[in-house]
Amino acid sequence: IMLPLKEKDRPIVKKLLEAGCCARCVLRFCCLGVQSAYRQSYEDTARELCAFISDSENNESQDAAVLEQHTEDPPSKKMKMDAAEMDVQSEGDSAVVPTVMEEGDAEPADSDVCVVCLGVLQQFCDEAYAIKISEVVKAKNYQFDTMVLSVSLPAQLSVREHSCWLHVKKEVREKSMCLDMDDVIQVKEAFKWTMQGLVSKELGGVPVVNKFEVGVGFTHPETDSDCHFLMAVVKALEKVSDEKFLKKFPCPPTRPVSKCIAQDVQCLHVSVFVAGRYNKFSRTLPQTPWVIDGERRMESSVEELIAAPLLSSFRAEGFNFSSSGREDVDVRTLGNGRPFALELLNPHRARFNKAEVRQLQETINQSSDKIRVRDLQIVSRDAMGHMKEGEEDKTKSYTALIWTQKAINKDDITFLEETKVTQKTPLRVLHRRPLAVRERVIHTMSTCFLDAHHFHLKLRTQAGTYIKEFVHGDFGRTKPNLCDLLKSETDILELDVESVDVDWPPSIPE
Ligand SMILES: *[C@@H]1O[C@H](CO)[C@@H](O)[C@H](O)[C@H]1NC(C)=O
Ligand SMILES: *[C@@H]1O[C@H](CO)[C@@H](O)[C@H](O)[C@H]1NC(C)=O
Ligand SMILES: *[C@@H]1O[C@H](CO)[C@@H](O)[C@H](O)[C@H]1NC(C)=O
Ligand SMILES: [Zn+2]
């Protein structure tokens, strides 16, 4: 006998096998935490268990030998167990033996679906099934260097587990270290102990790291309705009294006809994050898709232009775009550009070297005249935080083309360079950010006269200052504003962002 079972496990093993538990579920209920025991072939385990229980009926000297092996048991305990064993023995001579013999005949064969795991640990827990899983994974053509297996089981399995626990609770509590149902090895654990290594081996021996997840799921239509009496099964099982449970559900569980059905194997690679800076040269390009009343207003957007080549190169399933602030659709972003980061969801390819990333940047650059990208790089999820941290305190520089109704000359506007301006949260964003009633400061301004009704105003401001509101006053919320200062109706004709002073992501030398 190779399984580290103890004499005291014998009545539990017997009772579970009689109830229609599979060999591996028997090990679980014996709270056997030795992983290799579950990796042994199902047939060997089943055979050993049958031998283990028939020994107890047919061969007393074997019993003694088994007991002898367990020297870790203190002698006093051993004596007690010998006595207990004698009880079973005398009982067995008359009534139990025939039943057990029948059970021996019905030794868990392929057609015998386990009453608890519904076949998961019998038919889906071997090298052949590991090969099946890994073939599906290979066909999905992912690039990965680690792998974890996850498994989802039908909810009714918990109900059956509970019923089975009630069936042997008394024996288990008396004989083993398990005091609680939580001490029983879970189906998921036993499944992973066996299958994680096998699947990983089939996939080239990749280490177990939670970067690439292979998901295996099972359903069991035959018994789906079993747990309809419990709404949220697991939660409900914690509360339900044994009496109430036993009124609603057979104990031990009924024998199923069919085994579980394996669902499609799912693969999920952790997100890859790509960061960079973008320029936007168009005054008709929104940063994100512009949808009003479910209707698309602009044919493209900054995020889509950047994401398209990345989605196809990383073979990702979707993306999540974020940036350091944003500009209005009619505002250009010049200079070194605006920092952005893109989360690529479930990428099939994740490794790109520097040259390949540069190639991606060129592909984006060439895909449209409306944007350009620089400093493109793969970053960690954590590094993305740098983009948002301290964002409010950074400075931004703008150039605005201003129109004045009143004719001006060069000297009429130079005084602006000495003017201090603070701004309250503009009305148009108050509904979006009711708490952000912070004041913003325009640090410096300079002017460049163009003609009697036009000049360029350059501004260096605290991030978050609203330039358009400064020009037309926003009903007195920006003091002073350009209309007041120039004593003329004024308008902003064009606006460019000249720089966004966030020093992330790090610049990449050309
Ligand atoms: C009983 O056990 C002894 C010693 O372990 C062994 O030699 C013998 O073959 C066994 N008998 C049966 C009927 O299994
Ligand atoms: C996109 O990012 C936001 C913020 O980081 C996050 O809450 C959200 O779950 C992400 N969306 C997806 C689909 O991952
Ligand atoms: C893409 O455009 C930016 C901005 O013009 C430039 O700095 C960068 O070198 C270009 N990159 C490639 C690879 O073409
Ligand atoms: Zn089972």
TrEMBL record:
It is found in: Cytoplasm; Mitochondrion; Nucleus. This is tRNA pseudouridine synthase Pus10. One of its GO terms (molecular function) is tRNA pseudouridine(55) synthase activity. Residues 62-81 are annotated as: Disordered. Keywords: Coiled coil, Cytoplasm, Isomerase, Metal-binding, Mitochondrion, Nucleus, tRNA processing, Zinc. Its EC number is 5.4.99.25. The gene is PUS10. NCBIfam families: pseudo_Pus10arc (TIGR01213). GO terms for biological process: tRNA pseudouridine synthesis. GO terms for cellular component: mitochondrion; nucleus. Its main location: cytoplasm. Belongs to the pseudouridine synthase Pus10 family. It catalyses: uridine(54) in tRNA = pseudouridine(54) in tRNA; uridine(55) in tRNA = pseudouridine(55) in tRNA. Residues 69-81 have a biased composition (Basic and acidic residues). It comes from the Eukaryota. The lineage of its organism: Eukaryota, Metazoa, Chordata, Craniata, Vertebrata. Residues 114-232 form the Pus10 N-terminal eukaryotes domain. Residues 273-501 form the Pus10-like C-terminal domain. The keyword Hydrolase does not apply.
